[in-house]
Amino acid sequence: MSSPLILVNFKSYREGAGNSAGQIGSAAELVMQESGVTIGVAPQFVELHPFCRHYEIPVYAQHIDAVEGAFTGRIPAFTVRAAGCVGSLINHSERRLTIAEIEACVEAAKFNHLESVVCTNNVGVSAAAAAFSPTYVAVEPPELIGSGISVTKANPDIIRNSVAAVKRISPEVKVLCGAGIQSGECVKTAVDLGADGVLLASSVVKAKDPEEVLRNLVSLL
Ligand SMILES: O=C[C@H](O)COP(=O)(O)O
Q1: What is the pLDDT of residues 124-143, one digit of tens each?
Q2: For residues 109 and 111, what is the distance between their CA atoms, to the nearest angstrom?
Q3: The complex's ipTM?
Q4: Active site annotated at which positions (predicted)?
Q5: What does pTM read for this prediction?
Q6: 88, 100 in Cβ contact below 8 A?
Q7: Binding site residues, as ranges?
Q8: Which residues form the domain of 185?
């Protein structure tokens, strides 16, 4: 079985920019090399190309647009691919899309050889997203995001039931879970519930020592 994915979303946190973004990138690269666990990052857009050039870790965009040409201020899938990224988040709860936009973005990702991580907020939306055959469905109850309360403790059923719903529709679609993920115990519980990894942000990006948190996250795998 391939390694679970630990995907760190830098969001728009100040700690996820400039030198501190580089500190997280270096820590992710070191812990991935030492542990063999896949640690991906989703830095802010201006950091995508530098991260892809500088670190031997999978880099994801936080969003893509299914556009090309005379569009301003958008993030075309082909430019994310050209920057060297392996994939992109789509429909994060902080960047919600319509169902038509989600489908278009998943298709744009496929066309540009990008992994797609479609974010969902409950079991039903996870099942709907699976119908587009993305690479991943990432289920996160919005009320727990940034709360420091782990979804693996507060709502394990959303993980277990999303995995079952997604696999019923598209067995090849992998499932991540997120919201409050902060420890190796959270990651192990998520995997034990059938997830293929986790999507997280604040426990690493806002940490005084991101490397220490990343080591803990992989410690029980
Ligand atoms: O993209 C990450 C998720 O929104 C979870 O965020 P969090 O780990 O800060 O709760």
Answers
A1: 999 999 999 999 999 999 99
A2: 5
A3: 0.99
A4: 92, 140
A5: 0.97
A6: no
A7: 9-11, 145, 180, 201-202
A8: 5-218
